[in-house]
């Protein structure tokens, strides 16, 4: 079955109106599978002062919410599907980045796989990446050569007891980020978090973005 056509442009929930975005850092926030852009409502005040958050709705309706890509199991995107969404997001970002001083991407769960797909595809489009409770999109045709993310500040946060994301994908993600990616990696583990995001984690993300 083919995917429904994506909207011409993403639906975006902006944290501030257009006149207040000039000269601000932009965080592009990507929600989890089956959720929507409301997942990150209220995030901006918990990030560095003056940050603009663009919470983007994924293009594929699913389970009362939306998904970024079709997959062949949790954390395993179909190559043509994640590529299609990546091109759609990059087209939008080209129109959205102009007034901002820098652009970071933040993704949770399925949104982490999508954010990871974006930085693997075009790492120089971003000044930092925040990857939460998920996996990179392995075996989806994206480049993952050694040094691919050279110098890119990357925050990776999770709970080692998260049972939603397959352990083999998490292990593969960690091994690559630590040893092969070339990223300036900040890794944090939050015992008891499960598959979610905590206030402490968001405070750590704020500190990370302040330094990045």
UniProtKB/TrEMBL annotation:
GO terms for molecular function: hydrolase activity. It comes from the Bacteria. InterPro entries: AB_hydrolase_fold, LYPA1-2/EST-like, PLipase/COase/thioEstase. Residues 16-210 form the Phospholipase/carboxylesterase/thioesterase domain. Coiled coil: none annotated. Keywords: Hydrolase. It holds the Pfam family Abhydrolase_2. Belongs to the AB hydrolase superfamily. AB hydrolase 2 family. PANTHER family: LYSOPHOSPHOLIPASE-LIKE PROTEIN 1 (PTHR10655:SF17), LYSOPHOSPHOLIPASE-RELATED (PTHR10655). This is Phospholipase/carboxylesterase/thioesterase domain-containing protein. It comes from Kitasatospora setae (strain ATCC 33774 / DSM 43861 / JCM 3304 / KCC A-0304 / NBRC 14216 / KM-6054) (Streptomyces setae). The lineage of its organism: Bacteria, Bacillati, Actinomycetota, Actinomycetes, Kitasatosporales.
